[in-house]
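Fold it.
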Amino acid sequence: MADARARNAPRRDSPPRHTPPRRGRGTPGGRASASDAPPAWPSLGLALLAFVGYAAGAGTVSADKDSSEFTLVLASLGVAHPTGYPLHTLLGHVFVRAMQALGAGSAQAAALWSAFAGAAAVGLLHALCSRWLIARGVPQPRAWIVAFLPPLLFGLNPVWTLEATVAEVGAFHVAWLALAVLLADVTMKRPGGMSVRRAALTGVALGAGLAHHLSSVLWLGPLVAVLWPRMASGGARANGAFVAGLAALPLAGVAFVSLRAWHPAAIQWPLLEPSFASVWDHVSGAQYRHYLGRFAPSASQASLFMRFVLPLLPLALAGLVLASFQGARPARSPIARALLLSGVAQTLFALAYGVPDPVSYFLPVLAIGLASVPGGVLAWSTAARHAGPLKAIAAVAIAVLLPAWLGLASERRATFARFDALVRSMWERIPDEPGFVLWGDDMSHKLREYQLFDGRGRALTVVDPVLLAHRVARERFAREHGVEAFYGAALPALPDPVATAAFTDSVARRLNAVTPLPVYVFDPAQPSVRRLMKPGSVTAPSGTADPAPRP
């Protein structure tokens, strides 16, 4: 009997016949049990750390691009340029009001809203990466430690820190995407049938993207296609709840834009008319279709793309490719292939959208792609052998890049402060009396900030002449001021600053000829503020300020 027991006993150097699965390892086929979920505290801790860093980098003045417009829209609950970004505006307005109650200025509060969204995005990316590593068989402690690398590499990138420290919409977009992917991944791996409540909540979370940014459809479409069979497990009621959830927030966003079309806020897009056709053109981005078909970044955006996007873009796409195929270990879910399709579509869209500032459109690909890299590497046995060196290389890369990236962010904040001081000094040189100030730039909203928040120059009318090339804005201007000086003016070859300056001068001369009020041309690029002489005048009028002093 003793010999028989000895023969049947397991050898010391071999595992037992019925070894229970180790805690923290994914189950076969990509299904995960409740114990496979990573702890929340590492992701929350990283998000808190990111918020502290982004909040410290957020300035007290509005920045470049559309920052001043979003600052005004968030404060006044207005409507921004197409597509309006209603969800970002509604939630951001509540946040901005809370920050103002705590003593923050309007520009700082708007920047803190981006910091909050940016921190949430970084934390969610860590949770995603941890979850995908566990699904590949990495024990929990090691998984969430390794998962710090991708969000750090992404979260410290100067292109991202720009979005996360100024009043812009990119940080909120990536936060939504990370949340949508995380929820979709959890939904796909949840055992049992789909409940109506979970189907509705999943639909609401995914549909939130369309209530914010139209490009979310590039990620939403593949995710919905993958989740649809999973919803069928709950029957017709679950499918109906999912569809209703998908439509809820986008329809609410359209309703908000429609409300503002008939009941305008103090600040909103001047081309929005009180008609359903105008509302649809706005929320569908129809006014920007002419940008499709080319890649035409401004000089500063081209530099950002070459320095901080292009080096990481192949790595991010490679992560999506590796994660989407079976490899030597079980694939995490069909979601990986949906993300690959979306990542390629987003990249192609960004390369074919000819706005002057296209760099932020690459951020969703970098975020999800970099989060996919560790799990994608572990899907292949040959690459998995090099996981240790790869982690070391990534850590060294972050350590080397961190000082330069943080220095750039600090320098950028100082640059925005100097520019705001320059614009403010130029604005204060203009007499606060009825007149027109023309600045051919999106940043002309800065002057509206001074009017609304500081009470300086409220008698003046700030004009972006490029918008007056559009019929709606031109007709509204004629009704409000009784002048029609812009018909026949040739649009500038945007975004050519020389052509824009010439167009601004042309509109200013036409306006100056038909109004008795003073007309100023505001140009911080020179910098100068010019008051145009009236026809027949032989001396320069008082109030001329040309050039403006540099701060």
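The first helix runs from residue 2 to 8.
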